[in-house]
Amino acid sequence: MSTDTPLGIAVIGTGRMGADHIRRLHTVTNGARVAAVADLDPDRAAHAAHGIDGCTAHTDPAAAMAAPGVDAVLVASPGPAHEAALTAAFARGLPVLCEKPLTPDAASALRVVEAEARLGRRLVQVGFMRRYDTGYLRLKELLDSGAHGRTLMLHHRHRNPATPPGFTDAMLINDSVVHEIDVTRWLLGEEITAVHVLRPTPSGAAPAGLGDPQLVLFETTGGQICDTELFQNCGFGYQVACEAVGERGTARTGDDHGLLVNADGRWGGTITPGYVERFADAYDRQVQRWVDATRRGTVEGPSCWDGYAAAAACEAGVRAQTTGARAAVELAGRPGLYR
Ligand SMILES: NC(=O)c1ccc[n+]([C@@H]2O[C@H](COP(=O)([O-])OP(=O)(O)OC[C@H]3O[C@@H](n4cnc5c(N)ncnc54)[C@H](O)[C@@H]3O)[C@@H](O)[C@H]2O)c1
Ligand SMILES: O[C@H]1[C@H](O)[C@@H](O)[C@H](O)[C@@H](O)[C@H]1O
């Protein structure tokens, strides 16, 4: 496409993330315009399109993708709706930025991998935005440099102030730990081979029936052990951090977001209230890189294979949650498109 023409994007799902991406595409991202939006809720779709020149509102995702001026799709509907949206985008040959998770289970994620492999070219970038966060990028660079020798362990921390209504034990893995699964595979360049889940007595702040917090352990093909403290009702703010332990050094990201102030007999900084604030730069960079690559006619970033491998590890995680035993990750063969 001409470098002067902005990329026309259809945004599918205009809830919390969809609305934030629409704002970003409209006011932050260079070279993009929101050409159409779709939401099952017509009022929400109309509200999202309001004030954006030429943007049409739809309740059917396929109709939004067929709207005039649409060159690409950003999927921000809930995970169970992603496969249908991706199938509609594939039918039109449209490039997609798909919010995580690719799909909520391994079987549907594998169907997406196979459908894209049949097309013979990549169309999808999965929205694993931590890969675009400055701190994680610096950590990756350090680990890849080999300065600390081989990486032996990763310690992840993932705390949210509160879970939305209806959040389940399985969602703790599929919606939340999926980020640590992706970041582990990406930082180490290894697959996850097995998952363990340990469950302390739940916090008094956890909604009834939710086993929060949990300690999730991954084993990798490279023999590393990685742990995640997942605490989704910590009450005090949003904290995501990762410490890598190498043979000759350690490095940690995620502790020092913002300013550390010492004054009036107190020390400390602020904690971001949620992921929108903590990962604002990462979302901006992720979307800009996707728009730039799409305008060049290329696809970069996390692939459908990454989305499938994460879904397979999540499935093992949910099995480990329910049985209390180590659960092995079963991966299908990797199609040539992703090698
Ligand atoms: N990367 C991140 O940090 C991050 C953060 C939050 C959410 N997410 C992901 O973003 C996606 C959306 O999450 P959210 O928090 O914005 O959810 P949300 O519930 O706030 O919004 C989802 C919207 O999609 C609409 N919708 C439902 N089914 C649809 C369909 N079939 N077609 C079109 N619209 C449909 C709903 O009416 C709603 O407006 C999920 O995949 C979620 O996992 C990612
Ligand atoms: O959907 C959200 C989102 O992916 C956030 O980045 C994560 O921190 C939350 O745990 C999850 O529920």
UniProtKB/TrEMBL annotation:
GO terms for molecular function: inositol 2-dehydrogenase (NAD+) activity; nucleotide binding. GO terms for biological process: inositol catabolic process. InterPro entries: Gfo-Idh-MocA_inositol_DH, Gfo/Idh/MocA-like_OxRdtase_C, Gfo/Idh/MocA-like_OxRdtase_N, MI/DCI_dehydrogenase, NAD(P)-bd_dom_sf. It catalyses: myo-inositol + NAD(+) = scyllo-inosose + NADH + H(+). Its EC number is 1.1.1.18. SUPFAM superfamilies: Glyceraldehyde-3-phosphate dehydrogenase-like, C-terminal domain, NAD(P)-binding Rossmann-fold domains. Residues 8-128 form the Gfo/Idh/MocA-like oxidoreductase N-terminal domain. Keywords: NAD, Oxidoreductase. It comes from the Bacteria. Homotetramer. Involved in the oxidation of myo-inositol (MI) to 2-keto-myo-inositol (2KMI or 2-inosose). Belongs to the Gfo/Idh/MocA family. This is Inositol 2-dehydrogenase.
